Amino acid sequence: MEKNKYLLLGSSVGVLLLLIVAAQESFRKPWRQVQASGRGEDGEIAVRLRQITNANLRVGDRCVSCHVSMAPGEQSVTGAAILAAHKPVVHDPAEYGCTVCHGGQGSATEKADAHGAVHFWPEPMIPLRFAEAGCGTCHTALQVPNRELFQRARQTVDRLDCIACHRIDGRGGTIRPGGGRTEGPDLSHVGIAGYDKGWYEKHQAHAAKESAGPWKTSFGKIDDADLEFIGIYLATRVSAPALIEAKATFHSFGCLGCHRVSGAGGDEGPDLSRAGEKDPGQADFTNVAEGAGLDRWIAEHFRSPVAVVATSQMPPVAASQKEIDLLTLYVLSLRRRELPGAYVPRDQMQVTRFGQREFAPDGATLFGAFCAGCHGPEGAGKHASGGATFPAIANPDFLGVVNDQFLTETIRRGRPGRRMPGWAKDGGLRDEEIARIVEHLRKLGGAGPPADDNWRASSKPETGRGIYAANCSGCHGAKGEGGKGPALNNRAFLEIATDTYLMETVSRGRRGTAMAGYREPSPTRRALAKSEMESTVAFIRDWQKEKK
Amino acid sequence: MTVTPGSPNSRLDPEPIPRRDLLGLASLWSAASALLFAALGAMRLPNAAIVAAPSKSFGETLPESLPAGEAFIPAHRAVAIFRDSEGIYAISTICPHLGCVVKSNAEGFECPCHGSRFKPDGTVSKGPSPLPLKWLKVKAVNGGFQVDEATTVPAGTRVKA
Amino acid sequence: MSAPATPPPALQEFKDNLRAAPRRILETAFRSGNPSTDRTRSTFIFSNVFLHLHSVRVHRWTLKWSTSMGLGIATTAGFLLTLITGILLMFYYKPYPDAAYQSIKDIHFVVPTGRFIRNIHRWAANVMVVTVILHMARTFYTASYRRPREFNWLIGMGLLAVTLGLSFTGYLLPWDQLAYWAITIGANIAQSPREVTDAIGITGWFDPGGMQKFLLLGSDTVGPEALIRFYLLHVMILPLALMALMSVHFWRIRKDGGLARPADADQRLGNAPGPVYPVFTQAPLKTYSLAAIVRGRTPAVGNGPENTVPSMPHLFYAELGVFMLTTLVCLALALIADAPLKELANPSIPENPAKAPWYFLGLQELVSFSAFVGGIGIPTLVLAGLGLIPYLDREEAGTGEWFGGPGGRKVVFQALVVGFAAALAIESFAIRFGWIREWYLAVPQFVVTVLNPGTILAAVYGFYSVWLVKRYKSTRAGALGLFTCFLCGFLVLTVIGTYFRGPNWVFYWSPGDWPRH
């Protein structure tokens, strides 16, 4: 019976030892060591758990247990780099917390868990180089143009040397000699704060008064085009320059042609409105090289969509490394958080309540954002690998024979049975926006509508049957159902295509495609007479009456 | 030592209860039935008459470009809606086996929990599910349509949009 | 006036009483005085409400390690550990969906010792499930369920059920993906009688399955109502039930004459080492007369004191030793591995694979063929069979001995082979070739419910044990075989369910082969 005593002795001693180990472990937390090295104004700082709470934003971030100087009321703790204060930003971290912008696990108190790149935490920190993506949690930049316009706007501001006096996004702004300020105000977030629209006149008046100094030497006349670009540039100064450039890039690759963001865009691909919140734990990282952050996954997805999502139908994005980084930044910024009324920012309100657009309203941006994905940035069309053909809509031969109504209606209603969606209903585009796209298209192709658009083919349809069978059915199918060439019996198409359009296309052909002009002979066939072409058009037109 | 029940003189077996103690029996039985009734009443409480769950019936519009045979899954609903040449129909994505949410794919549906597979029309093609997926009632309502998760319709019922 | 030389007697008495108060408090609390002799120790035990569940003296056979292996005490220890740590966790836990998850995160990250306490809670619960099953196996193999302990065996089964219930209800509380989908499956298993009512076509007016599920969840999906119900069950209803049953279980051990021992235990043990003290030199009249009217086998009735030893201290050393050992195991496990916590529950994306707690994975394996058979049919059959054992096996041979009874070790060994072989064979067949529905798509559900690996396995085991009963002309032999077989089946199915089932419940040789999302 002694052995029971040994059992009790042994296990009790064991329990004691384990308890000591457990107790010791809880006193060796990393944040204790970090805080022990910190020094405040009055010497050593209190070693305790710190946190930022904000019930409105539903934030309880203990990040400040290590990043002590970001805690409320503890601005000047010195010591290890980790203790340092946040660089100056619009939002005080002590009020807004950390995870709202940066992501990560606010309740955690150890590095790996807190930074969130651990199993079972769906929102890891946004990598520092994409930090501006965090702004997208609450904000959305408005009226962002496409990349080309944006770059020209930036160049204009650089060329006119606005940053000689003004500070913009940390650049420029010469300090006044003797004074402690720059000559002009900081313009880094005039896009939100607003600015005096009459600034140019005031500048001019001011310059006229001065006889010497920077006003005389640096400021000159600015022409209207440049003023417009300055306006674009200033409207997008929201303290997030990289994010704006990223969004401008996004508006140049035609991504909205298939994806929807905030209610505008096609639905061929998934809605991207919250794509930046994707849980990395739900993503397949098998084919993603180096590291396992969501940013790498997104970047790889641009390079080779099928490699990361086996069922993806998205074509690879032909973009440079820098552009892919920008697109990645933009996608990461597509996040949303439920906000209490007082915290909803003005820009968000503009979008959700007042229907303000996130893209600039000009035709070039609209075309870049919605059309360029399929029709190419210059409207030159595309042959996708799957065999789908996207027409070259900027082809002057095409633009020269269609009227604006054809273009508008095609965009509005789409082409049922083809990839082209109806942009008025499904795509969420407004009539004035569609009109600007048409305008831009005309500019791209450099061809106006046909002069006479009211001609009607008056022949009997039957007479065209033979001609159609001999010349057209090879590409367009015996019943006009399409083949190598587009379908001609599509009712939506016939309803908006005028006889002039059909006649002129048959007659002149379309350069750059297989469609030949039938008024000229070719080595294999003779030219068609005008009456023959007319009866063909009548034959095609007749399909419109078929099957209601 | 044997004790005969009822033998009046046993020191170890006190006087048994008289068999025809009407008052005692009546009191005991009424106490028992009162307690039973109370227990049944108490059991009634956990059986909620109504719960604060979202309505089983909801309205929805389908995107124009939805291809035939591809599922449209409304947010926060375990329903897949389809459109084909004959009309619109809705299939519940709750596995009849043990209630997991099935995923729609090219061959139909598959359940992640115990590997049940279903054909596009919801009939079982593999696995333990005892029943096909439920077809839900769809009603065309001006422009969109209304899906009722609580009402099952025979498989194959489609509604013209 | 001068002060009196001695204080008045009343005051003196008051002072003396005050000085004596601590001693008297102790004396009145423990009336038997210092437990320094066997006699005072005995009094100490039966005058103490907590200790008097023990008999005053305990047979030496009971203290042999091989007799009980301390498994019952280990289970109790597991319960006490979960009870204490559970009460501690309740300081921070908030039983409302997203808040629940956040509070577990807080317990994990910032509550002082929170992570450790939660780990102990989780491991002690697992240890409790393991030891309660082992305790049951011990009781079975030593034939300790026999007369007069039949009813205590039934109470023990109740305890097993409540233990599993406690574990299962605790599973939902973290409100993570693991919890959510395990409980969704569990609740639908409760609904699986529908498989039968649907087949007969009476679900419309008689739906016990649906009623069970609705009562459990308080709604038709797992939501806030379900969470508060599971919380209530976990912290109040089931622990109370467990404690009530435990009290009866312990009390019955005492009333049934301590642990079962062979009839010839005294001869086998030989003489006690060291001197033997007679216990009741002056038999206290009260106790003796009490013993006279209590029917049954208290250790002091009809037995000489020769092979018994005082419970205090010998039994207490053993019990405390096992308690501390269990604590040691739980603490060590708690330091090694953290209790799991996955993503916040997401009702629209199921975990893949969604697995129940490990002790239900055997059932989940069966459930993957037929929900009713795996979830309700087989468990009911097993529970009914177990419950009937003591009433069918009315033999005497082998009580209190390991693998006692006709056939003995031989039967157990043979049953191990049969049990493993049958379970492995049917499982390999089903994994390799699929099951009826894969061959004949149109087969009615009724056929699948009646004919599936679960029912076939149960039938094989059943026929085998009937054969054993005939072969050895003993119910005990059949019971030995059947119990062993079911234990093997449980083991095989649990291991397959735990280690070899991956996404979509597909068989994989190792988790390394799982497709990545």
Brief rundown of the structure:
Chain A has 548 residues and is mainly α. Helix content of chain A is 40%, strand content 3%. Among the domains of chain A are: 31-125, no CATH class; 147-237, Cytochrome Bc1 Complex, Chain D, domain 2; 461-545, Cytochrome Bc1 Complex, Chain D, domain 2, CATH 1.10.760.
Quaternary: heterotrimer
Strand order of the largest sheet of chain C: 1-2
Number of strands of chain B: 9
Q: Give the chain pair forming the largest contact, with residue counts.
A: B-C, 26 and 47 residues
Mean of residue pLDDT values of chain B? 81
Give the ordered list of helices and strands of chain B.
HEEEEEEEEE
H-E order of chain C: HHEHHHHHHHHHHHHEHHHHHHHH
| Major beta sheet, strand line-up of chain B | 1-9-8-3-2
For the record, the CATH class of the largest domain in chain C is Mainly Alpha
Q: Which structural class do you get from the secondary structure elements of chain C?
A: mainly alpha
CATH topology of the largest domain in chain C: Cytochrome Bc1 Complex, Chain C
Determine the CATH superfamily of one domain in chain B.
Rieske [2Fe-2S] iron-sulphur domain
How large is the radius of gyration of chain C? Answer: 28 Å
- Write down the domain tally of chain C: 2
Tell me what you see in this structure:
The complex is a heterotrimer of chains A (548), B (161) and C (517). Chain A has helices at 2-26, 30-36, 93-96, 99-102, 111-115, 147-159, 190-193, 199-209, 214-218, 224-235, 241-250, 294-303, 305-308, 321-332, 346-354, 363-375, 396-399, 404-413, 431-445, 461-471, 473-476, 491-496, 499-508, 530-542; strands at 39-40, 43-44, 52-54, 59-61, 260-261, 264-265, 382-383, 389-390. With 548 residues, chain A is mainly alpha-helical. With 161 residues, chain B is of the alpha+beta class. Chain B has a domain at 57-153: Rieske [2Fe-2S] iron-sulphur domain (Rieske Iron-sulfur Protein, 3-layer Sandwich), CATH 2.102.10.10. The termini of chain B are far apart. By secondary structure, chain C is mainly alpha-helical. Chain C folds into 2 domains: 58-261 and 290-351, Cytochrome Bc1 Complex, Chain C, CATH 1.20.810.10; 366-517, no CATH class. Chain C contains 22 helices and 2 strands. Chain C has helices spanning 9-29, 38-46, 60-63, 65-68, 71-89, 97-109, 114-141, 150-172, 177-190, 193-200, 208-217, 224-255, 265-269, 285-293, 311-336, 361-367, 371-392, 408-433, 436-439, 445-450, 453-472, 475-499; strands at 57-59, 308-310. Chain C is globular, with a radius of gyration of 28 Å. Chain C starts with 8 loop residues before the first helix and ends in an 18-residue tail after the last helix. The model of chain C is unreliable at 279-304 (pLDDT under 50).
